[in-house]
Structures are given as C-alpha cells and as structure tokens.
Amino acid sequence: MEIRAFREADRAELRELFARAGEGSPSGSLWGHTESEREIYLEPYMDLEPGSLFLAADHGRLVGYLTGCLDSAAFPGEDERMARAIRRHRLYLRRGPAAFLARAVLDSAVAAIRRQGAPRGFTDPRWPSHLHINVAPEARGTGAAHELMAAWQQRVKEAGSPGCHLQTLVENTRAVRFFERAGFRPYGPEPPVPGLRHHGRRLHQRTMVWTA
C-alpha cells in the first residue's frame, strides 16, 4: 500500500474511485447523483487545495483518498458548494435528488416547529482544518485509512494548524470508531440531517475534533 500526494494525472481515476468508495455505509451517497456529489466533496479539493489531498494506491491502483483543507474559513463552505451543484445540475428536476430535497424541506420545517436543532457548518479557531476520507470496500481493513489519516495529521502539524474537525454520522459506527482511534472526540449536539435516510431511518450529524 502506497500513500502519496495527489497528482493532476490522478484526476480521472480519482473521479471514478469517488463513485464507488463508501459503498454500503450510511454516508455512501447524499441524493444518488454521483456527478453533483463529486462537485461538492471532491472537485473543489483537487482544484483549490491539491496539496492537502492524499491517495492510497494498492499496486498502483487507487483504493482510497483523503481530501483536506487547512483553513476552512478560506475555502468555499459546504452549503455554498451544495447550492451551486443543485443549480448546475437542476437536481430539483431529477426524480431521486428532487425527492431528497423535498424531504429535506419538510424535515427542516418540522424541526423548526418542534424547535429542534439543525445541522450547522463548523466554525471554531481551535479546529480550523477539516477533512473527508473515503476508502473503497476492497481496501477496508488493510490499513489504508489509517495511513491516509496519519499523512493528513502530519500535514496539519507541519502547517501549524491548531487542530482539525470533521462531520460524520452517528449511525456510521465504523467511521466513528475509526476517528476515535485517530484521536478525534465528539463535539457539540447531534441533530438529525434533513432529507437523509438509511434503510428508511433518520440519520444524525456528529461533529468530531482533533487537537494537533
């Protein structure tokens, strides 16, 4: 297993990996439209912060990646990226994504009526960096995720960032256990994510932080 930095020549293969990494997990897909989801969670990192993008390759074939950002305040926010993708791909006209978006609006309205909390973007100078990590099913349990995280945490330290945050799902217990082993701890409330379901069940956001 080789852990290395992203190169422009990796772009096409990494785009393909995005489509299958995370299969089977509660967070494997947002609304079932790979191209738009890729424009939210992968493309901006290749374009804007390639130095914080690490790859895991098994005999030359990409099997995992970690997208990172050292200063979240200087990076387009997730809500902004999501809104842009929705408009660009006219997701409100596509059956699957449109159903997700309608459900999200309804969930948000119900939460407001009940005065429940809602997921928020994260802003705290103690943990300004953030990451997303994905490993293909065939590479789980090989140490690829561990080595990707180690490379990222070393970059955070060398850059002088005080810490890192991430947002996952309470129900993604495999991911939560992995992050805890990497030194992350839960932080803040765990609100339900509007629109998101897994086997018909509501899913809840979990924010986790790590101090360098």
Describe this structure in words.
- The protein has seven helices and eight strands, in the order E-H-H-H-E-E-H-H-E-H-E-H-E-E-E.
- By secondary structure, it is an alpha+beta fold.
- It has one domain: Aminopeptidase.
- Strands 1, 2, 3, 4, 5, 6, 7 and 8 form an eight-stranded mixed β-sheet that branches.
- A hairpin with a 2-residue loop joins strand 2 and strand 3.
- It starts with a strand and ends with a strand.
- The mean pLDDT is 94.
How many individual helices?
7
CATH fold field value: Aminopeptidase
* Number of beta-strand segments: 8
H and E order:
EHHHEEHHEHEHEEE
- Radius of gyration equals 17 Å
CATH architecture: 3-Layer(aba) Sandwich
Structural class: alpha+beta
**Global shape:** globular
Show unreliable segments.
none
Which descriptors would you attach to this protein?
single chain; 212 residues; alpha+beta; Aminopeptidase; 7 helices
Layout of helices and strands:
Elements: E1 2-5, H1 11-20, H2 34-41, H3 43-48, E2 53-58, E3 61-69, H4 78-88, H5 95-113, E4 129-135, H6 144-159, E5 163-169, H7 173-181, E6 185-187, E7 192-198, E8 201-211
Give a quick precis of the structure:
With 212 residues, this protein is α+β, with helices and mostly antiparallel strands.
